Amino acid sequence: MTPLTVKCPTCEKPVAWTSQQLWRPFCSERCKLIDLGEWADETHRISGESVPQPEDQPLYPE
Q1: Residue 29's domain spans which residues?
Q2: Which of 3, 11, 29, 47 could form a disulfide bond with 16, CB atoms 3.0-4.6 angstroms apart?
Q3: Between residues 26 and 61, which one has the greater pLDDT?
């Protein structure tokens, strides 16, 4: 039986979906870290409404 193949979300290289593939769905650790960096700098984000933050209230009330 041939394993399921998916595209790497970063470089679109074909990746076999097997337990031996350590970084699935990514093709490599490098692509995994590139994706993580894009989430960290907000290149990737989940759409939705922003939560308004009151500017006059302290973040940690006493």
Answers
A1: 5-33
A2: 3
A3: 26
Amino acid letter, 10: T
Structural domain contains residue 56: no
- pTM exceeds 0.90, yes or no: no
Q: Does residue 16 lie within any of the structural domains?
A: yes
Helix (H) or strand (E) holding 60: none
In a domain, 59, yes or no: no
User: How much is the pLDDT for 46?
Assistant: 86
DSSP string over 8-59: -TTT--EEE-STT-TTTTSSSHHHHHHHHHHHHTTSS----PPPP--SSS-S
